[in-house]
Amino acid sequence: MSKPTSQAGNPIKILLVEDNPGDVRLTKEVLKEGKVHNEMFVAQDGIEALAFLRGEAEFGGAPRPDVILLDLNLPRKDGREVLAEIKTDPSLKSIPVVILTTSSADEDVLKTYELHANCYITKPVDLEQFITVVQSVEDFWFTIVKLPPTL
Amino acid sequence: MIHAENGEILHLSDSWTEITGYTAGEIPTINAWTEKAYGQEMTFTREVINNLYGSQEKVKEGEFTITTKSGQRVVWDFSSSPLGNLPDGRRAVISMAMDVTARKEAETELKRTLKDLERSNEDLQQFAYVASHDLQEPLRMVTSYLQLLQRRYGGQLDEDADEFIDFAVDGANRMKQLIQDLLAFSRVGTRGNPFEAVESEVIVQHALANLQTSIEEAGANITYDTLPVIKGDGIQLGQVFQNLISNAIKFRGDAPPQIFIAAEWREGMWRFAVRDNGIGFDPQFSERIFIIFQRLHTRAEYGGTGIGLAICKKIIERHGGRIWVESQPGSGAVFYFTLPPADEIESGMGKVAGNGRIPPPQ
Questions:
Q1: Mean pLDDT computed over every residue of chain B
Q2: Average pLDDT over residues B92-108
Q3: Which residues of A touch B176 (CB under 8 A)?
Q4: Dihedrals φ, ψ of B197, to 5°?
Q5: For residues B158 and B284, what is the distance between their CA atoms, to the nearest angstrom?
Q6: How many Å lie between the alpha carbon of B306 and the closest alpha carbon of chain A?
Q7: pLDDT at position B362, please?
Q8: A103 touches B: beta carbon within 8 Å
Q9: Inter-chain contact B140–A123, Cβ cutoff 8 Å?
């Protein structure tokens, strides 16, 4: 049985904003095993992420992602700043943002919801748990939630 | 010394000379005395002395630092009394001083030691927190990728490879647990809540609720006497009860665990006792088991990192109490710990509902 894709039949495009190459690879491996056909793009910090989203510099022609996985603790531009910019940009704010982070501090949770993150998930230490987490993100966003149509 | 309002020093005791090194001849007037003994402070001190002559009663001037003839600095606690008028009409005053130099030095030393200890303690807390916090990410990489290897290649490489990976994964998991325990331990001091009146019975009930599954699995029977209201951090004390009860269940013998909790009022504190009928241990280890990561069994016999009792001890000591244990191999164990009572006013004003026991009047 073939994997479900986005409504248009194309693989779901995911932008992962993460500076730790180990975590990038783990996410990639986990998404590979997942139920949903997807294509993953990586930005290593907040500045790259925003350039990608705006099709600037070397990212001219970059596709618009269906969902953004955002790590909070990034070099140069902090993940919270990136989130704030995405959610205040009229052309970007409809893209769902899932925060992936190792910090479970209460202030972080509150702050990211106030900045209109769609979802906040703590990166657990255990691979099995990480797999479950990423796959529930997939399940939730891609098969249950109706993603905003690309215009 | 006895002195008159025109500044003449009429009498100087031998001990005054002994300590300061100045003879009567060397300091005939207040001006001479203050200049020699007070240096830059002389103007201020002269004013203080001047004000004495107008007083009808004893005055306590307080502590002043004096420089002796040999250059030593001593601290004197002054008080003066009026002596009435001399035959020529001048008002006279007698000033007495107590040498408190030793006490002042001890106080300063104590303050400095306290400050050093506070700083050292803060450093240690920070170190423990940072070490365990920063160790988590690299450990996460090790653990996750080892597990990925297991998942993807387990059974595809030879048996040796599988075993090697198993050992590595096991080691990484244990390290993760140690780091988390170390973090928890370091947080006892840094994340404690302020103390308030707390019903220990309610806390015990919460702990039992948390341990429901293991209690049922072990067929444990846990009972307790009426328990008092105490002053402390409810969450941390909950951890203490939970750790002790969970240990009592874990280290059980062949019979189902029977655990009993009681409290006695002793010498101004509540002394709690948690008694079990488990395997017990050799009393020579009574102190060692409270040390961080110290265990009395192999990992194969019983799980756990050996942090539980160290955390209990740190929490109890944070509350100003003491924790100790009595045990014999095969005869179970009794863990004792002391906690301060809630202030009578707090308990009396209904801040705490229920059967709070107020300690007998002192």
A1: 88
A2: 92
A3: 125
A4: -70, 130
A5: 47
A6: 21
A7: 44
A8: no
A9: yes
Where would I find the H helices in chain B? 14-20, 30-38, 42-52, 101-153, 159-190, 200-210, 212-218, 234-250, 308-318, 344-348
Cα angle B104, B108, B109 (rounded to 5 degrees) comes to: 115
B213-231 pLDDT, tens digit each:
999 999 999 999 999 999 9
Asked if the interface predicted TM-score (ipTM) of this complex is over 0.85, the answer is no
Collect all residues of chain B within an 8 Å Cβ-Cβ radius of residue A22: 141, 144-145
Q: How confident is the model at residue A26 (pLDDT cuts 50, 70, 90)?
A: confident
Mean pLDDT value of segment B147-162: 85
**Counting beta carbons within 10 angstroms of the beta carbon of residue B238, is it exposed (0 to 12), middle (13 to 18) or buried (19 or more)?**
buried
Q: Which domains does chain B have, with CATH numbers?
A: 2-99 (3.30.450.20), 105-186 (1.10.287), 196-349 (3.30.565.10)
Q: Is there a contact between A126 and B137 if contact means CB atoms under 8 Å apart?
A: no
pLDDT band at A108 (very low <50, low <70, confident <90, very high): low
Measured between beta carbons, the chain B residues lying within 8 angstroms of A126 are: 143-144, 147
